[in-house]
Amino acid sequence: VCLDDATIKFEIWDTAGQERYHSLAPMYYRGAQAAIVVYDITNQESFQKAKNWVKELQRQASPNIVMALAGNKADVANKRTVEYEEANAYAEDNALLFMETSAKTSMNVNDIFMAIAKKLPIGPAHGEPTGTVDMNQPQQQQKGSCCK
Q: Locations of Polar residues compositional bias (predicted)?
């Protein structure tokens, strides 16, 4: 993702929440700067499992990790079992970014990555953050910038 003169590179590890990957999960999120926990809005059990993943990340991941909760399958909202308000309240209570998305239609997929990128510290990967990216600032076009 290109923001002003900073390029944010996302390395994506998808375990699909499968139990067989649970023991390997710390390897995936150790050192991670961001995590997206995804649940299916048509499946209450997947929302409960997502809450467990959030708890685990809160316990074991970096204390500064940017976490987002994504309610997927928004394209079939007429089949929902997890209400938007319920998930949004949970996200607010746990300081998570929250969006409903659709992998099928791409609804909010780019937006959730942009929201995460805006919250990530910029600077040395293992050092102190030097600032944050503010997407509300007007972009200045510069020669050689990554976003022309």
A: 133-148
Rounded to an integer, what distance in angstroms lies between the CA atom of residue 112 and that of residue 70? 8
Helical H runs in the chain?
25-29, 44-60, 84-93, 109-119
CA distances (Å), origin 127, targets 4, 52, 61, 62: 22, 29, 16, 13
Q: Is 101 helix (H, G, I), strand (E, B) or coil?
A: coil
Region of poorest pLDDT, from 31-35, 74-78, 93-97, 111-115: 31-35
Q: Tell me what pLDDT residue 5 has.
A: 77
Task: State how far the Cα of 131 lies from the Cα of 136, in Å rounded to an integer.
Answer: 15
User: Mean pLDDT across the stretch 128-136?
Assistant: 45
Residue-range domains of the chain with CATH: 2-132 (3.40.50.300)
